Amino acid sequence: MRKVRLTILLALLFGLVGCNGNTSKYTAFNKKTSTQLLHDCKQDKQKACVDLGLSYLNGKGVKQDYQKAKNIFSQSCDSNYFLACHLLAGFYLNGWGVTKNFNKAKLNYSMACDAKFGNACRMLGTLYEKGQGVEKNIAKAKQLYKKAMNYQRVACNNDKPMDCFMLGSVYEYGSETVKTDSKKSLSFYTKACNLDFAESCSRLGDYYSSDHPMGESVKQDSTKAIKYLAKACSLGNSYSCSGLGEQYLNLDNKKGIKRDIPKAIKYLSIACKAKTGGCFYLGNIYESGIGVKRDIAKALDYFEQSCDQGIQGIRGCDILAKHYELGWGVGQDRSKAKLYRDKAKDFKNSIFGNK
After folding, report:
1. Can you tell me whether residue 13 is helix, strand or coil?
2. Rounded CA gap, 278 and 199, in Å?
3. What are the pLDDT digits (tens) for 176-212?
4. What is the SS3 assignment for 128?
5. Among 9-18, 66-75, 152-161, whose mean pLDDT is lowest?
6. Quick count: other Cβ atoms within 10 Å of Cβ 258?
C-alpha cells in the first residue's frame, strides 16, 4: 500500500495537478457546466479556463482531449496566469498529446516557480536532480526543494489546501531536504481536509481505517475513518466512497462499526460505477449473500467489472479464475481461468513489480 501511496504522490509532483488553489484531480470539480466554464473562459476569467482545461485533461464532464487542455493552459499561461504554466509544463514532462520536451517543461516550471508556486519549484528541482532538460545539479535541486517548502508554508498559512496537502505528503515520505515527521504530516493533512481538499480527507480516512506506519500519530479509529472518508466521498473522491463502503461492510468485524449493508452497497456502487473500486466487494456481498439474497450471476458481473480496477482487480480476476476453473456458477472453462489468472498476475507486476 505504501508503494501505491507513493505513486499517488509522484503523480501529484509530476504535474498531474498542483499549485495554490483548490483545483485538483482529487477534489470535486467546479459545479458549473463545461458550457458555462467555456463562456467564463472566453470572458478572460482565467480560473474558469484552468477548470475547463482540467476537465478536458481528466475527461470530467467532457470527452478527454489533451490537445484542447494544452491549448487552454497555453493561452492562460500567455495571459500570465501562472498556475496554467505549471500545468502546461506537465504536458511536456509527461508527453500528454505532445512530444516530451524537458526544455519546455523547465521553461514553464521556471515561470510558475518565479511566481511563487511551490509545487512548480519542486518539479523544477526534480529536473535538476535528474538532469532532464538541464545539466544535473544536486545543489540547485536542493535549493529549489527548500524554496518550494517555504512557498508552500506561506500558501498553507493563507489557507491554500493543495499546498497544505503537499507539505503533508513531503513530511510523510521525507525528501532530500526534509526528514519524515508524522505529527507535522498529520497536521497538514488535517488542515487541507478542513479546507475541503478531498484527497487529504481520503488520506486521513485510509490512515484511520487501520494502524498506520506514521507511528503514534495515527491509530485505528473507525469513527474518524468514516468521518474523513464520508467527507472525501461527498467532495467527489470516488475512491473514498469505496473505502467508506468497506467500512460499513466491516468484513473484519472492527470495533466501533455497526455493519450496514444498505449503506455499504450505496457507497460501493458509487465507486464501482466510477471505476475506482467497490465492484469486488459488491461481488462478495452477492456471492455470499451478506444481507441480501444470494445471486451468483450478479456477483460474477461485479467480479468481472472489478477485474479492470487496480488492486481490487487482482482479487476480482483471481476469483473469476477459480469460478471458471472449477465451474462455480459458470460452465467450466480452463482457458478463461488461465486468461483471468494471467490478468491478475499482470496487475500484480504493474503495481508491485516483478517478484
Report:
1. helix
2. 18
3. 788 989 889 999 999 999 999 999 999 999 888 876 6
4. helix
5. 9-18
6. 8
C-alpha cell belonging to residue 124: 523544477
Which residues neighbour 348 within 8 Å (Cβ) at sequence distance 6 or greater?
314, 355
Q: Rounded to the nearest 10 degrees, what angle do helices 118-130 and 161-173 cross at?
A: 40
d(CA 244, CA 59): 24
Cell of 204: 486521513
Q: What is the mean pLDDT of residues 102-108?
A: 96
Distance, CA of 336 to CA of 257 (rounded, Å): 38
Query: 118: Cβ–Cβ under 8 A, 6 or more apart, which residues?
Result: 20, 147, 148, 149, 150, 151, 152, 155, 163, 166
pLDDT of residue 213: 59
In this structure, the number of other CB atoms found within 10 A of the CB of residue 340 comes to 23
User: What are the CA-CA distances from residue 114 to residues 74, 124, 283 (Å)?
Assistant: 17, 11, 51
Residues sharing a CB contact under 8 Å with residue 89, sequence separation 6 or more, in sequence order:
15, 104, 105, 106, 107, 108, 109, 112, 120, 123
Q: What's the whole-number mean pLDDT along residues 134-160?
A: 95
In 3D space, the residue among 8, 34, 19, 4 whose CA is nearest the CA of residue 84 turns out to be: 19
pLDDT range class, residue 272, cuts 50, 70, 90: very high
